[in-house]
Design brief:
By secondary structure, the protein is an alpha+beta fold. It has 2 domains: 39 residues; 33 residues. It is built from 1 helix and 4 strands; from the N terminus they run αββββ. The strands form 2 sheets. Strands 1-2 form a two-stranded antiparallel sheet. A two-stranded antiparallel ribbon has the order 3-4. A hairpin with a 6-residue loop joins β1 and β2. It starts with 5 loop residues before the first helix and ends in a 12-residue tail after the last strand.
Length: 85
């Protein structure tokens, strides 16, 4: 049997508990951010010049197309496919 001091056992328990909590926290936060932007339709943009569809979660009214570099304005009366709602 391995003999360890009580203070060493408590220290090891605390260190492993903190590491486990940090790992769970980081994986949960990383996974939540990916799912949050992928499923929300307000972040989906379609370029008015090249018709490239892309995701931009940083901008609300204007966005720059990553394909052709043109600026696009979010219009409330059109959906992603360009048809009137």
């Amino acid at each position: 049997m391995i003999k360890i001091d009580v203070s060493t056992a408590v220290s090891l328990y605390l260190v492993f508990s903190v590491i486990a909590v940090l790992v769970i926290w980081v994986t949960y936060e990383y996974g939540w951010k990916i799912k949050k932007y992928a499923s929300d339709k307000r972040f989906i943009w379609q370029c008015s010049v090249c018709l490239y569809t892309y995701i931009d979660s940083k901008h609300e009214n204007y966005s720059k197309c990553p394909q052709c570099g043109s600026y696009n304005e979010k219009r409330a009366d059109h959906n992603v496919s360009g048809q009137k709602v």
